[in-house]
Amino acid sequence: MRRPVAIVDYGVGNLHSAQKAFEHLGCAAVVTSDADVIAAAPAVVLPGQGAFGTCMANLGRAGLVEPVREAARSGRPFLGICVGMQLLFEESEESPGVAGLGVFEGRVVRFPPAPDLKVPHMGWNQLRIRRRVPALAQVADGDYVYFVHSYYPEPRDPSLVATTTEYGVEFASSVARDNVYAGVFHPEKSQRVGLALLAGFTAMLGSP
Q1: What is residue 151's three-state secondary structure?
Q2: In this predicted structure, what is the pLDDT of residue 24?
Q3: Is 186 a catalytic residue?
Q4: Is 121 one of the catalytic residues?
Q5: Are strands 78-81 and 180-183 parallel, antiparallel or unpaired?
Q6: pLDDT computed for residue 1 by the predictor
Q7: What is the pLDDT of residue 181?
Q8: SS (H, E, C) 152-188
Q9: Which of 37, 42, 96, 190 would you call most buried, defined as having the most Cβ atoms within 10 angstroms of its Cβ?
Q10: Dihedral pair phi/psi, residue 17, rounded to 5°
């Protein structure tokens, strides 16, 4: 029997909402801060909520910076959610001087000021699919997902971008490379489309 998907617990994020979403799909998931469990899991999910610097500090205090970085580079399916996606980059304007995980080259920036543009970007918005990666196999171009964020990534390599979204600017709403898929939106709050995305992600696991 396959081990459960590991949802990284470092004191932030919608951990149990994500766990319930996986279980709804018939995929066992465990919320854990145990580095050994994360290392042995067939797939790893890094959620996130709050400030970039706080999240990195929490990962450090939990002794999980290297285990999470290694999981993202291991070839096993890896999913980053919201700030968990942002942490995969090198740095963020939100927390100057704080190094991210550096899995992807690039930085995270705040929405530029504009008339009538409310920040944080909160609510439902569309995904425009730029690359049909495995996690998006069951998601249609133009589907709506749920966002709550003030920052978005600027990858140094534009080929990382899997989807974009329009909100004052066109920004990278998800990125993907090899085993890693990460979105600045919340699939666990995105109802049918979120479940479709998680189903595409779990399909990367293959048969038990």
Answers
A1: strand
A2: 95
A3: yes
A4: no
A5: parallel
A6: 65
A7: 98
A8: EEEECCHHHEEEEEEECEEEEEEEEECCEEEECCEHH
A9: 190
A10: -65, -45
